[in-house]
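Notes taken during the Thursday session

The instructor put the following on the board and asked us to keep it in front of us for the whole hour. The protein is 60S ribosomal protein L32. We were told not to look anything up and to reason only from what is written here. First, the residues (82 in total):
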Amino acid sequence: MVALKPLLKPQIIKKRTKKFIRHQSDRYVKIKQNWWEPRGTDNRARRRFKGQILMPGIGYGSNRKTEHMLPSGFRKFLVHSV
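Then, after some discussion, the predicted C-alpha cells were revealed:
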C-alpha cells in the first residue's frame, strides 16, 4: 500500500499566535476570559492605548494558502454524502 502524499506541500508559516482575553477579566472574577469586543466610548482597550490588552485584527491571520492545512499537507473537510 502506497502512502498518500499531497501534490504540493507549502511550508506552513504561523504568524503571531496570541490568546486574546476580555478587557479587565484579569481584574474581576465575575468577568470571564472569553473575548468580547470593547464597545465603551471611553474604553482604553478599544482606543488602543499603550499598555492595554491587544485586540484581534486581520494582521494575526494565517497565510491564505496554508490557512486550514494540516501538518501532513492535506486539508480537513467534512463529507456530507458518501
